[in-house]
Amino acid sequence: MTKQPTSAKSKSDANPMWGGHYKDGPAAVMQQINASIGFDCKLYAQDIEGSLAHVRMLAKQGILTGDEAAAIEQGLAQVKAEIEAGEMAHNLALEDIHMHIEARLKEIIGDVAGKLHTARSRNDQVATDFRLYVRDGLDAIDGLLRDLQSALLDRAEEHADTIMPGFTHLQTAQPVTFGHHLLAYVEMFGRDRRRVADARAGMNELPLGAAALAGTSFPIDREQTAAALGFDAPMRNSLDAVSDRDFALEFLSLSAIIATHLSRFAEELVIWSSAQFGFVKLSEAYTTGSSIMPQKRNPDAAELIRAKTGRVLGDMVSLFHVMKGLTLAYNKDMQEDKEPVFDAFEAVTMSLVAMAGMVRDLSVNQEAMREAATHGYSTATDLADWLVRTLGMPFRNAHHVTGAIVRLAEQEGCQLSELSLEAMQGVESAITDDVFSVLTVEHSVASRTSFGGTAPENVRRSVQEARKRYAA
Ligand code: ARG
């Protein structure tokens, strides 16, 4: 168990980084509530990358000497190696990753370490680190979305002709192809990728050089640091640079949309893999057994993907609440920006990987899908369309006539295609034998060749087109 917070004063002296005008140390609970090292240690690589760009710029501008910069660069490389070797102990008195790195740098290279923070503040430093993290996160998510699209496209191509019931209200509506259903998700994840790309393009400006909030009197070159860190440009306003977290809100928003898409698909997998549906069988790799019921294969990965959406939405809402109402510029509230983003990133990336794996692995029961597609009078619309096309009936009348024929089939307890011609003619005398040609599920899907429709030929064409458009 962690130690309970107390209000006792800590024995440590005033903070060595900023405590020049302090004579007392903080309350123990102040250290606990103030420290972010427990989570922002994740940003060590971004922090060092930002510091390296900064110190090189300081040297180039003649603000530090070449020797000073070289010492700092070497020291930072050592700190990085130590952190990666698991050698950095967390010290609440040092608050965050920025001060941990600087304090260790000082132990290694001495007082010259203090020059690294020239023309910089933790405010522009943390904003830079966090942008670098989010940018990497967006790139990683894009790659995983693309991989999931690629898995879906492979299965869609394989199942261009596989017929399943299409649902509205989870009631059988019209037959569709399984390939077409999978391609719906390819499009959704394609829009997610567009959102990722938009977010990346919009956020790719550098806060570093804004210093605490007002800029600096040192002759820094922000174009240089921006280029070194792969940003398109330095941010134009120092107050904005250190105080907005809209890029994190955007990251969380698009993550919530991705998670929502994944959740719908996960729910379908849960339903489809049930004994009642039996459309698909998930592989052992993504399911668990039950300790008491030997026959069980539970779709845990799908269920957890469905559930992770809740936490990602919570992450998004939590940061919106932190940010709303904050005055410019930096406020310590903003230290709470990181955990929701880290949490959402982990949930979304894990879910994307698991979903791609499930898609690649799942086996499809084509007979069960086709069989289900023939139930629920799924070709009733085809019958109505036939009445319109062949008899020239207005659609509304055709709908009415078809409804009467469906009622007849219900009474007989049979499919539409199993009714006799005479029975149908009892409802509408002009109906001919030709009507039976449109009542099969195969005919139904093959006829839906309109742009974006479910016909197998459309699916095959769409797969090829999507592979190009998404490079997937
Ligand atoms: N740990 C802080 C954060 O994450 C770094 C910035 C601290 N700035 C300050 N003015 N105290 O927000």
Q: What distinguishing features does this structure have?
A:
472 residues; mainly alpha; 18 helices; binds arginine
Structural topology:
Elements: H1 28-34, H2 37-40, H3 44-60, H4 66-84, H5 97-109, H6 122-158, E1 163-168, E2 171-177, H7 178-203, E3 205-206, H8 222-228, E4 233-234, H9 238-243, H10 246-272, E5 280-281, H11 300-323, H12 338-361, E6 363-364, H13 366-374, H14 380-391, H15 395-412, H16 421-427, H17 441-447, H18 456-470
Parallel strand pairs: 3-4
Antiparallel strand pairs: 1-2, 5-6
Task: Give an account of the 3D structure.
The chain is mainly α. Helices cover 59% and strands 4% of the residues. The chain contains 18 helices and six strands. The strands form three sheets. A two-stranded antiparallel ribbon has the order 1-2. It is elongated, with a radius of gyration of 31 Å. The model has no long low-confidence stretch (mean pLDDT 95). Arginine (ARG) is lined by residues 36, 40, 96, 122-123, 126, 330, 332, 334-335.
Helical content band: 55-70%
Figure out the total of helices.
18
The structure class reads: mainly alpha
Return residue spans where pLDDT drops below 50 for at least 5 consecutive residues.
Answer: none
- Using the CA coordinates, give the radius of gyration: 31 Å
Small molecules bound: arginine
Number of strands: 6
Order of strands, widest sheet? 1-2
Relative strand content: under 5%
Order of helices and strands: HHHHHHEEHEHEHHEHHEHHHHHH
Major sheet summary line: 2 strands, antiparallel
What is the terminal separation in angstroms?
47 Å
Give the mean pLDDT.
95
- Name the overall outline: elongated
